[in-house]
């Protein structure tokens, strides 16, 4: 009996208070542990996965967006790499989990397992490399097989700073993207052209869709930012 009352009074005296960015648990007036909340402080969380042939510039796009860098001598990605960036979209904090996958064939079985829970895929090719464009149907088959059927896919033609070496015309890429119901954008990780726009437009669209879904289906198990389908009629545009 004594044990029971002691235990219950112990739990009753545990109080959780929010102090600045931290949640602090007090026993009486004594703080016993603190959890830093800033890591979890966001309105939406979206997972974006970059795929495409080796050497098209996936890692450089991610580095440019997350760190503002174009690092020379990037080695090939081994398996999968991961970075986070939180952005502000119209006053809402959006945490983007960005997964950079290896383009090399030998890592395909590892990278495929990352498609499933992606909210968005950035399918990248190199505008100065015809081969990387020719492989797109193969990548789209992978997407069909392994990704959520409602994932949003953006086709990105990277390295537009190499205009004089262009092998794939913009028109051809746009037609291909349209025929496969994808957005299309051309970027340069080197010159930082359209890189912010790529990720911010994507974030904006993912928010729109998460809100739409919250209205349409009231399924409590589906949290915003988790496995949502995307509508293209939004405030943001890739065109
Ligand atoms: N000129 C130019 N070169 C770029 C651009 N983006 C990437 N590169 C170069 O292309 C090469 C490959 O870039 P990565 O970012 O490693 O390519 P990746 O697609 O991540 O390659 P994997 O990790 O093997 O799949 C590097 O030498 C980069 O410096 C760009 O926008 N313009």
Automatic annotation (TrEMBL):
Q: Please, which domain of life does this record's source organism belong to?
A: Eukaryota
- Any idea where this protein resides? Autolysosome membrane; Cytoplasmic vesicle, Autophagosome membrane; Golgi apparatus, cis-Golgi network membrane; Golgi apparatus, trans-Golgi network membrane
GO cellular component terms, A-Z: autolysosome membrane; autophagosome membrane; cytoplasmic vesicle; Golgi apparatus
- What keywords were assigned to this record? Cytoplasm, Cytoplasmic vesicle, Golgi apparatus, GTP-binding, Hydrolase, Lipoprotein, Lysosome, Magnesium, Membrane, Metal-binding, Methylation, Nucleotide-binding, Prenylation
Its recorded reaction(s) are:
GTP + H2O = GDP + phosphate + H(+)
Recorded hits in Pfam families, A to Z, give: Ras
Q: What is its EC number?
A: 3.6.5.2
User: What GO biological process terms are annotated to this protein in UniProt?
Assistant: Rab protein signal transduction
Function, as annotated, reads:
The small GTPases Rab are key regulators of intracellular membrane trafficking, from the formation of transport vesicles to their fusion with membranes. Rabs cycle between an inactive GDP-bound form and an active GTP-bound form that is able to recruit to membranes different sets of downstream effectors directly responsible for vesicle formation, movement, tethering and fusion. RAB30 is required for maintaining the structural integrity of the Golgi apparatus, possibly by mediating interactions with cytoplasmic scaffolding proteins.
Q: What is this protein called?
A: Ras-related protein Rab-30
Task: Give the species.
Answer: Megalops atlanticus
């Amino acid at each position: 009996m004594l044990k029971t009352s002691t235990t219950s009074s112990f739990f009753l005296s545990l109080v959780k208070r929010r102090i600045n960015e931290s949640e602090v648990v007090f026993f009486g007036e004594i703080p016993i542990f603190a959890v830093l909340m800033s890591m979890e402080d966001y309105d939406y969380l979206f997972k974006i996965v970059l795929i495409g042939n080796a050497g098209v510039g996936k890692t450089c796009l991610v580095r440019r967006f997350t760190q503002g860098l174009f690092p020379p001598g990037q080695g090939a990605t081994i398996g999968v790499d991961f970075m986070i960036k939180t952005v502000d979209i119209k006053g809402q904090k959006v945490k983007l989990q960005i997964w950079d996958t290896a383009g090399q064939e030998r890592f395909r079985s590892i990278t495929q397992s990352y498609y499933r829970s992606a909210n968005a895929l950035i399918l990248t090719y190199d505008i100065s490399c015809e081969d990387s464009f020719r492989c797109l149907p193969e990548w789209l088959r992978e997407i069909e097989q392994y990704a959520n059927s409602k994932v949003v896919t953006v086709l990105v033609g990277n390295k537009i700073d190499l205009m004089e070496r262009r092998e794939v015309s913009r028109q051809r890429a746009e037609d291909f993207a349209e025929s496969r119901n994808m957005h299309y954008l051309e970027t340069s990780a080197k010159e930082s052209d359209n890189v912010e726009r790529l990720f911010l437009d994507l974030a904006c669209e993912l928010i729109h869709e998460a809100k739409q879904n919250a209205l349409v289906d009231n399924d409590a198990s589906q949290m915003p930012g988790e496995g949502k389908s995307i509508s293209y009629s939004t405030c943001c545009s890739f065109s």
